[in-house]
Design brief:
The protein starts with 5 loop residues before the first strand and ends with a helix. It is an alpha+beta fold. The protein folds into 2 domains: 101 residues, Immunoglobulin-like, CATH 2.60.40; 210 residues, no CATH class. The protein has a 5-stranded mixed beta sheet, with no helix packed on it. Helix 1 runs antiparallel to helix 2 and helix 5 packs across helix 7. Helices cover 55% and strands 20% of the residues. Strand 3 and strand 4 form a beta hairpin.
Length: 343
């Protein structure tokens, strides 16, 4: 005897949603062929623990790709319509199957669905506009830094290495403070990227910029500032325009290749330059006792901030490993997807 689970349905202009009331479903087999959805699974339904199955012949053509998500209480199925439109009923037969009922939790009439689409489009438009403007501002900022430093290098030669902080730092401060937005975007799901790698990069750069360079006047004229700023900006002038095009689901092949390739040598070199800056600052912090951590009077001394920097150096290269692995996985995934599409 075939057991049929309770199935609830709702629709939008482009999709059909089915909710199968089956607890702890296992061995789920769901597919659409010749406009008929077939479902079979084992689980706890209205007739206890058994195998349940059903089939539905849809009113209009649907795409063969079916997605589903199983929870402890139910199986949620999404079927995409072949053509956008509103169906007067779900199945070809006018008489509704006894196991089928409307899903009032998701039910909308046609006008409400249109309003939902408009609200979604409005939200997507605001999000797209925000991301585009943010990436544009960052691109302009880092482009100014890169071009300015390049021109000064050609005009003044080695002398330009010693005044980088005074000529570039204001714009770099602005760009790196603004970069905190990227952590918030990742944390709140505005963009699909990991929070931890983003946080490591933003905090790491701001630590170098504000603590190592900003707080020590002795570091302002060191050539290492030039190399750190130049390597940072060289990476970002490819990353941000790539994200700008991504806001509109557009890409340029050469820009995509540059975005996922240039960082491979530049990112480790940037971290190496940051490490050199930290090493050069250690004796300065030790002598000036800046940011030293005071201890109780009974001990009568303090912990030099230079000791913290020794620990930070270890964490810096740990962060390099985490971020490099994350970025390399992104690169492999990106080019594997492009190769699959090409085939």
């Amino acid at each position: 005897m075939t057991l049929t689970p309770l199935v609830y349905w709702a629709q939008r202009h482009e999709e059909i949603y089915l909710r199968v009331e089956l607890t702890d479903a296992q061995n789920i087999d769901v597919h659409a062929q010749d406009n008929v959805l077939q479902f079979r699974a084992q689980g706890h339904g209205a007739k206890g623990q058994n195998e349940y199955e059903f089939s539905l012949e849809f009113l209009s053509p649907v795409k063969p790709e079916v997605s589903y998500k199983s929870t402890q209480r139910q199986v949620n199925i999404t079927v995409r319509k072949q053509q956008r439109g509103w169906w007067e009923r779900l199945t070809v037969q006018e008489r509704k199957p006894v196991f089928l009922a409307p899903d009032f939790d998701r039910w909308l009439d046609e006008s409400d669905a249109e309003m939902e689409i408009r609200e979604k489009v409005r939200f997507v438009s605001l999000k797209t506009g925000f991301l585009f403007v943010y990436n544009l501002v960052q691109f302009l900022g880092f482009s100014w830094i890169f071009v300015n430093m390049t021109v000064r290098l050609f005009i003044f030669g080695q002398d330009s290495l010693y005044d980088t902080f005074h000529t570039i730092s204001d714009v770099m401060f602005f760009c790196q403070i603004l970069a905190a937005v990227e952590v918030l975007n990742a944390a709140f799901g505005v963009v699909r990227t990991g929070v931890v790698p983003t946080l490591i990069q933003v905090v790491g750069r701001n630590f170098i910029l504000f603590i190592i360079f900003g707080s020590l006047e002795e570091m302002h004229h060191r050539p290492v500032v030039f190399f750190v700023f130049y390597l940072w900006s060289a990476i970002e002038i490819f990353r941000y325009p790539f994200y700008m095009l991504g806001c509109f689901n557009t890409e340029w092949k050469i820009l995509t290749w540059l975005r996922y390739t240039v960082w491979i040598p530049l990112y480790p070199l940037g971290v190496l330059a940051e490490a050199v800056a930290v090493i050069q600052s250690i004796p300065i912090f030790y002598e000036t006792k800046l940011f030293s951590i005071p201890l109780p009077k009974a001990i009568g001394t303090s912990i030099s901030f230079s000791y913290v920097l020794h620990v930070y150096l270890v964490l810096m290269f740990l962060g390099l490993f985490i971020n490099f692995r994350h970025l390399y996985k992104q690169r492999k995934k990106r080019f594997r997807t492009k190769k699959r599409k090409a085939n």
